[in-house]
Amino acid sequence: EADRVFNFAAGPANLPLNVLKKSQSELVNWRGSGMSVMEMSHRGKEFKSIIEKAEADLRTLLGIPENYAVLFLQGGATTQFAAIPLNLCKPDDPVDYLVTGSWGDKAFKEAPKYCKPKVIWSGKSEKYTNIPAFDTLNQNPDAKYLHICANETIHGVEFKDYPTPRNATGILIADMSSNFCSKPVDVSKFGIIYAGAQKNIAPSGVTVVIIRKDLIGNAQEITPVMLEYKIHADNNSLYNTPPCWPIYISGLVFEDLLEQGGLAEVEKKNKRKGELLYNAIDESKGFYRCPVEKSVRSLMNVPFTLEKSDLEAEFIKEAAKEKMVQLKGHRSVGGMRASIYNAMPLAGVEKLVAFMKDFQARHA
Ligand code: PMP
């Protein structure tokens, strides 16, 4: 435990130490069942209690209204890029995508197989550093939904509020993979919220889909059973063998977040960490730079570059020596990226900031 590093990876990412320890203490014999969660029948009463508690706690955390279903699925957020149009559209239906980074772009690129998507705004020409004013968006009134990526993991662009869908159905859909449960969200504004787990809530293997119930049940004929929301909703996410272990860990994380006082408290901590790091960048007199427009900077993924870019490899190497790892930026943008999800303690950010100042003093 003393040898643990501060892990700034974008995902899979750090998990709360108390959750890891709790799972360790229950690893070989879960609460007197005589077996590990990994060995249980997904249809037994033990696992049933685990998945039901996880759902109930998530509902409390996010204040999920009764008319929304919560699904625990497989295939990652990437599978949802296809599942969403398959479940919500006919092949000729138009849909709108607002593209603020690589993930929004990937979601868009999967859609033409199943519907008629259009990019109504893209930040690509500005290297994905901003989000447009919502009233300038040219939304298609006939679109079946408007899709956004609420937090772009690679580019560090985060929606602080959300556009109002001006389409016929009024449906807004958000990929919240990398800021899920990092702050309160008004679920009722969305038709679907979905998130791969491996950043804020669990190891990889489970994807949470929160969907308004009236949107379930109109899938295209060709929809594979594993992608059909109705199948999973009717079977409480137990149509086939679910990812039992990641669901169990997500449940422990939800308990931990509730114990911390819920998402408003969690958001306060995340704001404090984010401010600390962004201030260090902004006050470095250009030694460090964050390209993202200030009003939309992500509190989860902080990309930055060095003015002297030839020092970047040295920065990453020295930081790793001091047990701060995975700071290399995504290969598509270069530079550095510090992912500071819920589980990153303030001490980790403080240590990084102290290191940045020291590194600057030595190399300015
Ligand atoms: N959306 C976002 C915002 C992501 O960060 C990622 C993964 N980095 C994905 C989608 C893809 O998720 P998965 O690997 O679970 O398919």
Automatic annotation (TrEMBL):
<dbReference type="GO" id="GO:0006564">
    <property type="term" value="P:L-serine biosynthetic process"/>
</dbReference>
<comment type="function">
    <text>Involved in the plastidial phosphorylated pathway of serine biosynthesis (PPSB). Catalyzes the reversible conversion of 3-phosphohydroxypyruvate to phosphoserine.</text>
</comment>
<comment type="pathway">
    <text>Amino-acid biosynthesis; L-serine biosynthesis; L-serine from 3-phospho-D-glycerate: step 2/3.</text>
</comment>
<keyword id="KW-0663">Pyridoxal phosphate</keyword>
<comment type="similarity">
    <text>Belongs to the class-V pyridoxal-phosphate-dependent aminotransferase family. SerC subfamily.</text>
</comment>
<dbReference type="GO" id="GO:0009570">
    <property type="term" value="C:chloroplast stroma"/>
</dbReference>
<feature type="domain" description="Aminotransferase class V">
    <location>
        <begin position="5"/>
        <end position="352"/>
    </location>
</feature>
<dbReference type="GO" id="GO:0030170">
    <property type="term" value="F:pyridoxal phosphate binding"/>
</dbReference>
<keyword id="KW-0808">Transferase</keyword>
<keyword id="KW-0028">Amino-acid biosynthesis</keyword>
<keyword id="KW-0032">Aminotransferase</keyword>
<protein>
    <recommendedName>
        <fullName>Phosphoserine aminotransferase</fullName>
        <ecNumber>2.6.1.52</ecNumber>
    </recommendedName>
</protein>
<dbReference type="GO" id="GO:0004648">
    <property type="term" value="F:O-phospho-L-serine:2-oxoglutarate aminotransferase activity"/>
</dbReference>
<keyword id="KW-0718">Serine biosynthesis</keyword>
